[in-house]
Amino acid sequence: MGMTRPAPADRGEPAEELLSPATRPLAAVIVAACVGTTALLGALLGHGAHTDPVDTAVDSAVRASVSGHPKLLELLARPGDQPAIVGIAAVLVLACLLRRRYRGAALVAISIPAAAVITERLIKPLVGRTSLGFLSFPSGHATGTFALATAITVLLAGAPALPRALRVAAVVIAFAIASVVAAAMIALGFHYFTDAIAGAAVGIGTVLATALLIDLAVQAWRRSGQRPPPAAGAEDRTGVTSAEGIATPRADAAKPSALPHQHVPAKG
């Protein structure tokens, strides 16, 4: 007889899901929108340092509002540096492990590096857009910070023990920091506005896609470890299967079979 995998409660694991069934369709729509936005902008703006009217207007406004403060801008951009992203991600993974939220730890450990690889190793060389002599599309700073903000949002959505006001405030702060980092990189001239938009799309889309895949993979794994219930009314040669799946002897099977009639010759 095959052994079934124990339920999460039997193993001492919390049975949390990263995304509730009600939010998965919305998450899938957001992922599709992020992919479409990045692909469209990359096709329109690649292979050069040219900008579009949106970049010209937004970049000029951002740079005019904070010009003359390079040290401050460098400070504001630091949360998007690679060491900061790696450090924050490590803290989130450790916090999830301590809380035994293993799906959350896997989400951060997989999605944050994946978003960086997609941006730096795949899209930037493919699109080839430059600023100040560096590949700029999408913004790596925007990718990292928006990926972290999205991961924090997913993790806090699965932490109902925390007050709702606290969770909302944390999410707002995370996305505000990501937006400030993106604006600082634009003001410093390293990125255009559309670079930041594409970076945010890659970060958000990668985290949500990873969350969907992890939830679906765990569900498939659990289904594969469950024995299918016996068919209703199924019976074997010696008994009838009850509602609980236990074979019970049939009434006629319990009775001894009658011996065949034997003819006894008469004495003569």
Give a written overview of the molecule.
- The chain has two domains: 200 residues, no CATH class; 27 residues, no CATH class.
- It is 63% helix and 4% strand.
- The strands form two sheets. A two-stranded antiparallel ribbon has the order 1-2.
- By secondary structure, the chain is mostly helical.
- It starts with 7 loop residues before the first helix and ends in a 14-residue tail after the last helix.
- A hairpin with a 2-residue loop joins strand 1 and strand 2.
- The longest helix is centred in the last third of the chain and has 32 residues.
How are the secondary structure elements laid out?
Layout: H1 8-11, H2 24-45, H3 53-66, H4 70-77, H5 82-98, H6 102-127, E1 130-131, E2 134-135, H7 140-157, H8 164-187, H9 193-224, E3 239-241, E4 247-249, H10 251-254
Antiparallel strand pairs: 1-2, 3-4
Helix pairs in contact: 2-9, 4-8, 5-6, 5-7, 6-7, 6-9, 7-8, 7-9
**What is the number of domains?**
2
- The overall pLDDT, averaged over residues, is 84
Total helices: the number is 10
Q: Give the number of DSSP strands.
A: 4
Largest sheet, described in full? 2 strands, antiparallel
Distance between the termini: 63 Å
Class per helix and strand makeup: mainly alpha
Radius of gyration: 31 Å
Bulk shape? globular
- Helical amount among residues, as a percent range? 55-70%
Give the topology string: H per helix, E per strand. HHHHHHEEHHHEEH
Poorly predicted sequence stretches spanning 5 or more consecutive residues: 1-14, 240-245
Strand order of the largest sheet: 1-2
The amount of beta strand, in percent, is under 5%
